[in-house]
TrEMBL record:
ATP binds at residue 85. This is Serine/threonine-protein kinase PLK. It is found in: Cytoplasm, Cytoskeleton, Microtubule organizing center, Centrosome; Golgi apparatus; Nucleus, Nucleolus. Residues 56-308 form the Protein kinase domain.
Length: 632
């Protein structure tokens, strides 16, 4: 069959629509002059699949691999753009080379997953083998890291989550990738990550049967591969550790001036963990880079690690992240931009659905669920693991701990209010009509720096508070000049930032640091603003608690707020004019406020109800742990 025919018109734009061609009917004329020296002179711009007659237009070079050169390639009948690996037969003339390509094709063509580069089609003509892959216009993480040098922790969470998802699928198909590296994580136009390049991939064999060597050089060799004990799923997990390290620090963990030394470091799992990394990142890296394969975490456990649950995981990343660090902060007056950015960063129906599924699964299996349904007092077995906590006065010299008195009674009141509502509230599909909520104060930003100093937050009236690890609290008023200090509830000292008592200098510095950090780096968590109070903080934090899914905060005036990490929704319960009001801030950061009495009569949809139930469970767990219910 004649492969190259005459062409009367050359396509100039790969996005242009072409009339569908009949198989084998396109007229092509060989055109050599437009190759710009990228391709061998004999390779045509128009390529025809001899089996189907489909014609493709070869575009720009995307990159160069071991055997292949990768080109942008457009299907002329549909205008769909692919990334085409073109491998000259001359490059794979030896049987083992050809076998390698065939194996890659066999493994890759059956894979279908959102985070795996899609394999569309392959064919060959007398000169080349062609593999048509999903086109990833933003190239790879290696390219992104080259431009950026290092990535921020939220970005690393964003990419790692997708890598783990793709890898989990691969391992479920009993395929090992064996060459996980930044250059094999491709990025699509919409900034979605796709694991690609199955050149070194292999079927998972039982431990005894594994081949002890890999033909080819994986980038991130694990100790067991170096020791010729074979490559298992855990060796891919090791590579993930190297990838995470490299993204955060801009250099691989085992880089020395000579290969022998590098291998020694790998065998001993010896590498430096700079203090610039967060404690959670350090912990996760060290578990991924455990010397013994069995000590490394399973993929599911990675996503449940504190590195993910205690930090911000963007749902989307803007394309600007390819060349500059993202700013997760948007000034509050720019509301339309705010909403757009919020939608772009945190939208995503699929994950929402997943979240609801997990949440409802949790609630359905929770002993409280049955208890609530039966109207019985809920039991508090360890349904929620409370991870960290901080309380005002918790380390004070006072013999009567505030935890057991004031904080306890605030929490107890909220518990009974929430429980009463949940036990009696009917089911409803629609969200009831909201009411006006004047000057609600709530936490718009927070930072957990309790591994060092304490927990910082910013209120909607721009007052910044820090509950220090030593159990004291400081508020910086919106004027940024006045500090209110509480060592215990109700006992307040006030001073100016220009005249700080000597023994408070350190704490005030930290307070200002928190304020600055949140101003510069964090985005407001919702659309509700309140008037700055220049005289007195109405609200200060008594206690905060974290589970793996949510952060709960209790305030001196009885305000109670729960932030759900995953979809950024929030519940705020407060009293206004002797009435309990519940504010719900949804995924789009839009708030609605209800009188609790109207929720009680009209009911609320399942998503809000589930969040209220989860919040109640957190309170119950807190009570079980602190023992205030028993003692009081
Ligand atoms: P190797 O197997 O040696 O890593 P590949 O043939 O897989 O090389 O890829 C070579 C280069 O082509 C990559 O580094 C990348 O720049 C580009 N490339 C490969 N696949 C794609 C794709 N699906 N989308 C966009 N570019 C790609």
């Amino acid at each position: 069959m004649e492969l190259l025919r005459n062409i009367s018109q050359q396509p100039t734009n790969s996005n242009r629509m072409y009339e569908p061609n009949q198989p084998g009917s396109c007229e092509l004329r060989r055109k050599r002059t437009e190759d710009h020296g990228h391709a061998p002179a004999e390779m045509s711009k128009i390529i025809t699949d001899p089996a189907t007659g489909k014609c493709y237009c070869r575009g720009k070079v995307l990159g160069k691999g071991g055997f292949a050169k990768c080109y942008e390639m457009t299907d002329l009948s549909t205008s769909k753009v692919y990334a085409a690996k073109i491998i000259p037969h001359t490059r794979v003339s030896k049987p083992h080379q050809r076998e390698k390509i065939d194996r890659e094709i066999e493994l890759h063509r059956v894979l279908h997953h959102k985070h795996i580069v899609h394999f569309y089609h392959h064919f060959e003509d007398k000169d080349n083998i062609y593999i048509l892959l999903e086109y990833c216009s933003r190239r790879s993480l290696a390219h992104i890291l080259k431009a950026r040098k290092v990535l921020t922790e939220p970005e690393v969470r964003y990419y790692l989550r997708q890598i783990v998802s793709g890898l989990k699928y691969l391992h479920e198909q009993e395929i090992l990738h064996r060459d996980l590296k930044l250059g094999n994580f491709f990025v699509s136009e919409s900034m979605e990550l796709k694991v690609g390049d199955f050149g070194l991939a292999a079927k998972l064999e039982p431990a005894g049967n594994r081949r002890k060597t890999i033909c080819g050089t994986p980038n991130y060799l694990s100790p067991e591969v170096l020791n010729k004990q074979g490559h298992g799923c855990e060796s891919d997990v090791w590579a993930l550790g190297c990838v995470m390290y490299t993204m955060l620090l801009g250099r691989p963990p085992f880089e020395t001036t000579n290969l022998k030394e590098t291998y020694r470091c790998i065998r001993e799992a010896r590498y430096a963990l700079p203090s610039s990394l967060s404690p959670q990142a350090k912990q996760l890296i060290s578990s991924l880079l455990a010397k013994t394969p069995e000590d490394r975490p399973h993929l599911d456990h990675i996503l449940r690690h504190d590195f993910f649950s205690q930090g911000f995981v963007p749902e989307r990343l803007p394309a600007s992240c390819c060349h500059s660090a993202p700013e997760f902060h948007v000034s509050s007056p720019a509301k339309s931009f705010f909403k757009k950015a919020a939608a772009a960063l945190f939208g995503g129906k699929r994950d929402k659905v997943k979240y609801y599924e997990t949440l409802s699964e949790y609630i359905n299996h929770s002993p409280h669920k049955t208890a609530l349904a039966n109207g019985l007092p809920p039991t508090t077995r360890d349904t929620i693991r409370l991870i960290v906590r901080g309380s005002l006065g918790s380390c004070s010299s006072s013999s009567e701990c505030l935890e057991d008195s004031t904080t306890g009674s605030v929490a107890e009141t909220i518990t009974s209010v929430l429980r009463g509502c949940l036990e009696n509230m009917p089911k409803a599909d629609d969200i009831p009509n909201g009411t006006e909520c004047s000057n609600l104060q709530w936490v718009t930003k927070w930072v957990d720096y309790s591994n060092k100093y304490g927990f910082g937050y910013q209120l909607s009236d721009h007052i910044v508070g820090v509950l220090f690890n030593n159990g004291t609290h400081m508020s910086l008023l919106a004027d940024k000049k006045t500090v209110h200090y509480y060592a215990e509830l109700g006992q307040c000292s006030v001073f100016s930032t220009s005249d700080v008592p000597e023994h408070f200098v350190g704490q005030v510095t930290v307070l200002k640091y928190f304020a600055h950090y949140m101003e510069e780096n964090l985005m407001d968590g919702g659309d509700l603003v309140s008037q700055p109070d220049t005289h007195m903080p109405r609200l200060y934090l008594l206690q905060w608690l974290k589970s793996d899914r949510a952060l709960m905060m209790l305030f001196n005036d009885g305000t109670f707020q729960v932030n759900f990490y995953h979809d950024h929704t929030k519940i705020i319960l407060c009293t206004q004019r002797e009435e309990y009001m519940l504010t719900y801030i949804n995924e789009e950061r839009v708030s609605s406020t209800f009188r609790l009495s109207s929720l009680l009569t009209s009911g609320c949809p399942a998503d809000l109800r589930q969040r209220m139930e989860y919040s109640l469970n957190m309170l119950l767990q807190r009570a079980a742990e602190s023992g205030w219910r028993d003692s009081g």
